[in-house]
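To whoever is covering the structure queue this week,

Two jobs came back overnight. Logging them here so there's a record in the thread.

Job A:
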Amino acid sequence: MIIEAIINRPSSKWLESSGPFSDIVISSRVRLARNLLDVPFPQQMSEKQAQDVVDGVAEILAEKEVRQVLGNLEVVALSELSALDRQILVEKHLISPIHADNTARGRGLAIRDDEAISIMLNEEDHLRIQCLFSGLQVKEAWELANQVDNHLESKLSFAFDERWGYLTVCPTNVGTGMRASVMLHLPALMITNQAQRVLSTLSQIGLAVRGLYGEGTEATGNLFQISNQVTLGLREEELVNNLTAVTGHIIEQERSARQHLLQKARWQLEDRVCRAQGALAYARIMTSEEALSHLSDVRLGVDLGIIKSIDLRTLNELIIMTQPGYLQKLAGQEMSGAARDLKRASIIREKLKA
């Protein structure tokens, strides 16, 4: 099964560091919120109505002409997955924490084997179409999301108003129903105390800054998610172009900060990244926060050529492998926080040796 393979592997196509500007941009994502006409929102629907939504989407995705364009997407019921498996899907950014906690009948997920396409079924909205790419590829993610959207809309009647656009549960999503986001690694801006200045202005141009797992989370490991806040009054192309342009500016700022560190504080920078490498290579106990912090510093060292023995893909995989859900999956059992800290350190040492 596709879902079993996805849960059991730490790698994801969006973590390959193969996309443009992947030294700074970890990933690009586009999400479209859609609801069906004449069907109550998920919070008000019956279990039968919810299951009808899942079955209808599954039927469309199974059609030969759709599979030829979009590939093979598997539809699974969240109730068939363990709590640990659902947590791993959250850690891989494939479902939301809210969706993971709701295992009532009719809550599901459609997903492609490369994880580039996933559709949350009956989360906050009937459909949350998500496309996830490596590096700065917001336009490419949007184009693929549009393909998925068009195939589904040709068979389903979406709730749409000529004045307001697509109708959603949350008023902030009304209009295009689109959230475009990028995940950025900004260690040099943090080290040089410029991150606040650079990021604080984004809200003034309709963008939001969040942590590793989106809304309600704080930035850890110098990882930030930047996404559009406005979905009404702008076309999807404008939202994509605005986010791409702003991301390009932030990339320039981060690169400038990295060069400043190399020129003005090289020995301190090398000491920092090499200490982090040593901690990852030899520590016996490692918390999640420590792991992300050290991985961030080592990644900066790899990007700047200070560390040559580790590749970015390994570091990206460790971001997933060191999360609580995946650690327990590898151990084959539930673990206390202290046991996870021991297991985390062990996995990092083994991965870096390999």
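Job B:
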Amino acid sequence: MRSERGALAGGRVGAARAALVLALCLASVVPAAAPSATADDNTPPSGYPTWADVQAAKANVDSAKAESDRIASLLTTVESSAADASAKAVSAGAAYAKAAQAVKDQQQVVAALEQESAKRAAERDAAQRNAGQFAADSYMGGSPSDPIETLSVLGQQDGIGRLQTLQVLGDQAAQAVTDYRVAANAATAAEEKSRAAKDALADLAATAAQQLSAAQDAQKQAQDAVSQTQQHENTLLAQLADLKGTSANVERGYREGQAAQAAYEAAQEAKRRAAEQAALEAQRRAAAEAAAQAAAQRAQQQAQQAPQQQAIQQQNAAAAAQQAASVPAPVVIPPPPPPVVSPGVGVTDDPAGAQAYASGQLGGYGWGGGEYGCLVNLWNKESSWMTDATNPSSGAYGIAQALPPSKYSTAGSDWLTSYQTQITWGLGYIRDRYGSPCGAWAHEVANNWY
């Protein structure tokens, strides 16, 4: 999602999986937002204002403003810490998913090569039996070894027939031996390929195991960091609200709304740049086509002129056409990357199950059945109801597209992998921000974000 309470306007995330190439983040996650960080990770964070500081600052307008600014800065710090930890968990999960897919792909390669190796081995064994049979036939037939034996055979009643049979057996046996050698070489090559593929599979499996461990660690660290950060965030929001005479919910909504608008504007700017680049490319193509047409017309005119002049003009036209075609294209600024998914470890995408769960929750918010269609439309557009849907530009995550993903943690620590937790948070966000799913959908239609 892309707005307030956590789901900022991050852009569309489809159900496509591709396989995105995301870098694995193995660095340690900051355990909590610590404005005055030290080299000792075991040192409790410090630098947060006390309630006494807040009350003292309220006595003076300038002091209150300074304290509000300081608290706002601290809020940015703690929110960034939670967002960073969450992003690392998502990236680590994506790296593991990529490694796991590589293992599956290699398993298919191994299976195919094993089948090929078995086929070649069977052909080798058959060729060996065939060659052996010819050898046995030659031996049993008494293959002549010298002229005396040959004369002896000729002296027999069927001598000439026997000599012809032995000659045939000898030729066929030689071919059988050749066939066996070819089959044996093919079988050996197939076995070597199969063995190499199995070795590669073992390496990939080891890598996947390491990535799994790293992803699990990142998940745990993200959960811990988000939990600790949440405590500071709640206190700071309450202090800021006290200074400004509002409420913590109002301050939270304002900050998230500002972030949502900023993310939306960034996405729109990226689209604008892409459209401008597309227009420039279209102009370049049109100019090249016009130049080519002009060259063709000149060539046609030249065909009607004297042969000598025609040859000269054709050369000039060809040079002009070549020059027009060789006009360098403007530097292309690639558009934002298409939406991808970044699976978390243990995620099972189940859009149908997620929709069924959400449908069963609507009554608890006082919404009628008519709201379900709006909710389906909303989250179809946002995430296709994929638990691990990730926007590559903004980092918005999950079914409700929370940004940063750590917003989900208020509904449960399993937010990275559980669509129930994501939906619970998302429905609460919609209720607080728009009143109902149809209200959120109307805003999405009007503004392209919610």
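Note for Job B: The CA atoms of residues 365 and 428 lie 8 Å apart.

Please reply-all if you pick these up so we don't duplicate work.
Q.
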